[in-house]
Specification:
The protein has about 240 residues and is of the alpha/beta class. It folds into two domains: about 5-80 and about 150-240, 3-Layer(aba) Sandwich (Rossmann fold); about 90-145, no CATH class. It is built from seven helices and ten strands. The chain has helices at about 45-55, 95-100, 105-115, 130-145, 160-180, 190-195, 225-240; strands at about 5-15, 25-30, 35-40, 60-65, 70, 80, 150-155, 180-185, 200-205, 210-215. The strands form two sheets. A six-stranded mixed sheet has the order 6-7-8-3-9-10, with helices on both faces. Strands 2-1-4-5 form a four-stranded antiparallel sheet, with no helix packed on it. A hairpin with a 4-residue loop joins strand 9 and strand 10. The protein is globular, with a radius of gyration of 18 Å. The chain starts with 6 loop residues before the first strand and ends with a helix.
Length: about 240
């Protein structure tokens, strides 16, 4: 499968009506194909807003965001995982996947559920699934929409640590198979240290890049000790004065 797309993010200004200061200003980032990038920073700094701009959901800003050279709003929709699962409660797991993309066949939806560890739960409704299982359905749904470009907005909030670890493993396995370009919004350096190739730490108002770090060694080879060291290093940037 082809690698995920290249993203060029050139935001001159993003401002909300009535706001004294822009949310983002002179924000310029290039994301390479098949790179997993963590956007790290405190709540309210603009991470989720930036993700919506990349998704083409929010086009009210000055500048340009392109995906493989195509304007974000005109590019194929990204696979999006939100802070909550946003599953439709009246639909089964398999129908939640097919509801967002009518071209997805039942066999393809079953295969996606199996790949996220939910074989046998295809006909279960959201209320019958644990929080971790619901997030896995949401992840499978995102891959059904666009496995090349994935946008994850705080996808592990409200989950217990052991459930987070399971969903992260599923995500990393799928990304490894599909060579996706992925952006993961998080306020936790631990998430970046485990999942990302690169961490962009945001701070201030207007938001600026406090740090832009290539995370080494490669994410598939990091030991627990190396991940703890990376998380500690990222936390020092996150806590620095803005």
């Amino acid at each position: 499968m082809a690698d995920g797309p290249r993203l060029n993010i050139d935001v001159d200004e993003k401002r909300f009506a009535g706001s004294a200061a822009p949310l983002l200003e002179d924000f310029h980032v290039i994301i390479a194909p098949a790179q997993v990038v963590a956007l790290v920073g405190p709540s309210g700094v603009g991470k989720s807003s930036l993700l919506r701009m990349i998704a083409g959901i929010d086009s009210d800003y000055s500048g340009a965001i392109t995906i493989d050279g195509e304007a974000a709003a005109a590019a194929p929709p990204a696979g999006f995982v939100f802070q909550d699962s946003r599953l439709l409660p009246w639909l089964s797991a398999i129908d939640n996947i097919r509801a967002v993309r009518e071209e997805t066949t039942e066999a393809q939806a079953r295969d996606l559920l199996a790949r996220v560890g939910l074989a046998g739960s295809e006909n279960a409704y959201p209320a019958q699934l644990s929080g971790g299982m619901q997030r896995r359905v949401a992840l499978a749904r995102a891959f059904s929409v666009n496995p090349r470009l994935l946008l994850l907005d705080e996808p592990f909030v409200s989950l217990d640590a052991h459930l987070v670890a399971g969903v992260q493993r599923v995500f990393l396995d799928l990304v490894r198979e599909t060579h996706s370009t992925a952006i993961v919004v998080t306020h936790l350096p631990d998430d970046a240290a485990k999942m990302a190739d690169r961490a962009i730490v945001l701070g201030g108002r207007p938001a600026r890049i406090v740090a832009d770090i290539e995370l080494t060694p490669a994410r598939d080879t990091r030991s627990d000790e190396q991940m703890r060291a990376l998380a500690l290093a990222l936390s020092t940037y996150d806590e620095a004065p803005n």
